[in-house]
Amino acid sequence: MVFRRIPAVIIALFLIALLVAILPLAFTSSVFLNYPIPSLSFRWFDELLTSDAWRRSIVNSLIIGGGTAAAATVLGTLAALGLRTRPLFAGFLRALFLLPLIVPAVVLGVGMQIFLVKLGLASTYLGVIIAHSVVAVPFVLVTVSASLQGIDSRVERAAASLGAPPVVVFRRVTFPLALPGILSGAVLAFATSLDEVVLTLFVAGPNQRTLARQMFSTIRENVSPAIAAAALVIIVGTTAFVLLINASRRAMRG
Fold this sequence. Notes:
Blueprint: H1 2-22, H2 43-50, H3 52-84, H4 90-98, H5 105-119, H6 125-149, H7 153-161, H8 166-195, H9 198-203, H10 211-221, H11 226-253
Helix pairs in contact: 2-3, 3-6, 3-8, 3-10, 6-8, 7-8, 8-11
């Protein structure tokens, strides 16, 4: 049993090592990303809060990420519920929903840009949310489908046999049991939007510059420790969000 965990431990240590190598530089007083750190400082976190570009990008990421999480969660949940009934060509439909995961981001970005221009939604918040939702829906579909598979259909049939209409069965039985998967999908959708760069470069305008795009632009123009500070904010924020969701799930089970 111990030997089976060794590969997982090695992979986890490798991933953590990458974070340990860069995140401490968020607290450097230097203007360069290098070791050793001259002294500890919070100047780069202060820049995130005082710089108009960084502050606006954080607000944009929260707006777009929240909108993406809401839209992708609704669409992915509806898709999972529809595929649960095993309609005709269910395998093809599932593959179609998962297609954004394998299509190159550049191809998807060009297509989304053309599509949004025709709709008049290019360089708008709604356009960016739509683009991000396209790549976030598959994650919601996978998590909600897994949650639905764990539901005993006899419980739903028992509720229906007692006279509950389909809407009531879904609201009182299916939805509460699938809620952990739905919440997990929402977290993944938000994280996907927060990390998306390529699509944002194609469909977002200057007013929709997200935190990930700001980090990408900063790397190209001037490598600053503010990038490490922004990365730390993203990691801490996402981790706190995941912990909050897990605590909510445990509370509902209790």
